[in-house]
Amino acid sequence: MRIAASIRKVLIMNAASTIIFNYIGIFVNLFIWEKNHSIFDVTWFNLIMFITWSLAFAGGSRLLTKYTTRLLIRVTAGCGAITFLLLTLLTLDNRLLWIAIIAVPVGIMWGFYAASQNITLSAIGKGGDFEGYFSYATIIGQTVSIINPVVFAFIIKWIGYSGSFILMFVFITILMVVSFFISPITLAGEKKPLFQQMRFSTVFSYPAIRWMVPSCLAAGVVLQFQGLFAIIFTFSVSSDKLVIALLNVLYAVSSIMAMILHRKMTIRSGIWLKVGMIAISVGFLVALFQHSVFLVISNILTTIGLFYFGTVWNSGQFRIISRHTSIEQARILLWREWFLNVSRIGMLILILFVKDLQGVSFLVLLGFSLICAFLVPLFSQKSEDALAVEADNEKLEAR
């Protein structure tokens, strides 16, 4: 699968940042978990992070009307440095305040990085580039997920968390250097301000793009439930850092196998999306058995499902978004990020009330996530059908 040179540069940026984000996703969450083994603590960290992420995405998009994506990546690297300095030096008696302070720069990192990546991809991507990009981005992520956890598990055992936090500055430096070589995408040349014509009815003005809204809301629920409980399931299996790292390697290998199957079989993207959501749903149900073996199987199934979801669902939405002008794309992406994060934040608020993996609240949220998992392919198909009807109408008008 060939991809454009400009897309390859984005993938290089993706690889550098993935190392940092993968470390935060596993070991910073584990660092927080180890204190009290509290679902509330991990959920609180992710809740503050996503609230900050949503605001940072809007701020990053606004900065792109004056500066380029290179600035956003440098801010991302700077916030990474602040995060690991705080983890190394900051101590507070109020644990929730300490967690919130750590989560804020992480949220800014994610928000600025997501704004930069989305605007860059929508600006330079063409048609088939999107599926190629998301496929390669996933495999880069999984390769990092194989190497990163094991390496840092040994490093933490050898020199402790503080040593590993300091070592992360090497990768932050790499990300900073990469920022000087990526394509400098900007919205500075646009005549109309970003936040002008930002009303929902103006941005989502035709059926195909309006179906993206419920699709994003449902997807946010599924992504957040899987993302948080995949971490907690893994931490519940073992407290040994190397075992946790090896389990993450197993999940990465599962995703790679899913990618190989995806590339060898000629099946419509809509079918792959359904397969992905079925795998995620079965994974959710398997987790009900609670035994460590079933928790691992659950994570394997949801990881496989997320590969198909990430490749097909994202590429389908970006194909629609790419039909618009740069400033219109920025507005759509801003709304899209807000819809995804609103449902993520709502889910995290509900998860705050989950005390264990056997209570009624956990079962209710699992059931709600299952419903949303089956709604995502339905809404995506509605969007594709509406787009096909619009294309047919345009052909008729052209005759």
From TrEMBL:
It comes from the Bacteria. The keyword Nucleotide-binding does not apply. Keywords: Membrane, Transmembrane, Transmembrane helix. The chain crosses the membrane at residues 12-32, 44-64, 71-90, 96-115, 136-159, 165-187, 208-236, 242-262, 271-289, 295-313, 333-354, 360-379. The keyword Cell cycle does not apply. This is MFS transporter. It comes from Paenibacillus agricola.
